[in-house]
């Protein structure tokens, strides 16, 4: 019995976590490269002379030439790409064709809004989904189980925009509980978040249920019971931590889908998000806006996936040693 | 039978499983006794009900499909089948512990060895973390685990099968149970590791004064480890005797058949004898003695009545009509 | 599966039997069949031409002449919904076919040959998947421009990675099996091995993915049309119809309810059937 034996339960040192994280970061570099390449080439893939596209169809030739010089459109493509990336890294996404303002300014506000909206959505989706999934798994084939699985079916089958319209119809128009659109307080975000989160909740519920059912059958659960642990501990400590492993990935993905699908909710509820910004940009042929949105959203999603991978390794120690 | 020495007495234990309209009669009146300091072996083919017996003792039979329909399980003066859920939980892991066949999957993969062991210790022994830690390390050292403190911090997948079984043994013995149930503890291990684990069990039994209920289908393990043996067939015990008697003087036709199937160096045999027929379907068991369809000694009552377990010579029990009337007097 | 790896007749029977027992899957199957039927026979089933509107009869509620009512331009909603089924099915079939063919090819090549080629293909898929969900389709439309054809292309490209992954996974796990080794030892050509052994044995997950993907594509395509990036007016597409209905939500809610309901039911049908297929084809579910 030595002194100073501190039974620290965390024991995180030298676990392989550091190496795992570095490996993951290394693996996403080519993807980021691809994403930036695609965003950059948008302007060049669309049919037409980029300079004319930027300057406007009816601009006079001197203006077009000036635009061409200013944006370096006469340079070889790889040099243009290099400029593109070096500007982006410094936060310069160019100027909006339509209103001549720095893209970064618009992007920042709108993007933060969408992130906020998605965040509330994933919270709602996660809360509802996890609880429904866990209870369904512990009471398999009960009424609750059947109801929640039917609910999950509806969740993944309903179009977001339709659900949003329905919610608006019932809760804003008839019941007047929530405002019908625009931003402002958190009340403005509840209905859109529910519409956005419905399918996420469904996916999480199904995944959690399936995972829990699988885990509860395992030998180590039998061991935990044989050791006299209370059923509550067996389920919510021993089973849950294992069951969460695949669910964590789903959380990350669903948050990403919310970021991407927010545009539908933003349209229904007239919200100033990045999705709406991008779609407007497409209609107005405002390429810098579109490029900036694409780049920002995709990069964020890649980072979200990185975080998800790290969280996965936190839940499943076996992964750390691969 | 000396009352004071009695640790566990099982009488008429019957456990059924219900599925899709038919009933599986997994256990049909199992009876045996285990004394203090004894290693009792439960032997039989796969599917005869050995594991179900073990799980029934600890009431770990999953209750939607399964149900303990009848029987008595006396343990240290208490009737286990009458205890509340909370009471039986306080016995599991503390007075009766169990180790399982598959060490690879019996430990929780996402918690460290130390956490899992300490959890059990703290649950049953009301000690703080530091003390639990030290007891856990002590147990690991007792089972000759090299670098015990390092192992405490490791995850199950970082250990080999043999080491995981050692951890299981350490964990289950950490609260000094009176009875350790070992369900095929070596079947899934390498032959060389098997010998080590068996030796370890013997040593622990000696040091900690634990009785063992050893479940296996391996007759060699029985010969090595047990004091008394119960032979199970199709959900009941057909013969029970001391290990010497069971090998030298087997009485039940099934037991004799089992022994006949073992190759022996001394004998010269052309072929191994095999018991004809197959193990019965436990949802439609044969009437009367469940072994009678395969028995070369069967006669009149065997297909109508179930033979009771009776004592023949000293403490040698058989359930077979061949021996009715040859019971010991008294 | 026998040595040649093709599904034996008895196995298909087994799968069919299991499927029949799954009532939810049957319900889904019926919905799908109904949907396909309506789509194919739209011209005969539809009471009015979908694009002709009588402006004197705008926004009527459901009545005997117009079972679902009329839309803001006086067009019969029932007819538009029926033709919408046709458009949707067309979009689904073309998009999923694109994804199926290209994705399966990529998955087979990557899974079978491994190495640098596989890495390259997987990186490409990763790049596509870096754009989350519908955002990817929107980005493709950003390059191609709005319109029906581009919608089908976008929905197709956006579905490629899932097919590629699944087929690749299947090929990788089958590659190591003995019957493949045997085929190689006998000197069979790679192309033969891929198409005669590996592909048929991967059919189960491919079929399940195809069915489920029909559901996803419908949601995505209608979403894009809702945003105005897909079909252009006056084409009767369910998502586009919902977009028109927004302004009349209070005055004529039926215009918004019906097309959305149609989308939901059809998606549900494909999802139920797809889930049922997946369960029936799962070799682990031995009774």
Compile the SSE list and pairings:
The complex is a heterotrimer of chains A (322), B (330) and C (287).
Chain A: H1 17-45, H2 50-55, H3 61-70, H4 77-89, H5 103-138, H6 143-157, H7 160-174, H8 187-216, H9 219-226, H10 231-268, H11 274-283, H12 287-315
Helix pairs in contact in A: 1-12, 5-6, 5-8, 5-10, 5-12, 6-8, 7-8, 7-10, 8-10, 9-10, 10-11, 10-12, 11-12
Chain B: E1 6-19, E2 22-35, E3 39-43, H1 50-57, E4 66-75, E5 78-79, H2 85-91, E6 96-99, H3 113-125, H4 129-142, H5 148-153, H6 161-173, E7 179-183, H7 191-208, E8 211-216, H8 219-225, E9 228-233, E10 236-242, H9 243-248, H10 253-260, E11 310-311, E12 317-318
Parallel strand pairs in B: 3-8, 3-9, 6-7, 7-8
Antiparallel strand pairs in B: 1-2, 1-4, 4-5, 9-10, 10-12, 11-12
Helix pairs in contact in B: 3-4, 3-6, 4-6, 6-7
Chain C: H1 9-21, H2 23-40, H3 42-45, H4 77-113, H5 115-129, H6 134-144, H7 148-175, H8 178-185, H9 190-201, H10 203-227, H11 238-245, H12 254-281
Helix pairs in contact in C: 1-12, 2-4, 2-12, 4-5, 4-7, 4-10, 5-7, 6-7, 7-10, 10-11, 10-12, 11-12
Describe this structure in words.
The complex is a heterotrimer of chains A (322), B (330) and C (287). Chain A is an all-alpha fold and 322 residues long. Chain A has twelve helices and no strands. Chain B has 330 residues and is an alpha/beta fold. The mean pLDDT of chain B is 87. By secondary structure, chain C is mainly α. In chain C, helix 2 packs across helix 4. The N terminus of chain C is likely disordered. The chains are: A mainly alpha (322), B alpha/beta (330), C mainly alpha (287). Chains in contact: A-B, A-C. Chains A and C meet through helix 1, helix 6, helix 7, helix 10 and helix 11 of A and helix 5, helix 6, helix 10, helix 11 and helix 12 of C.
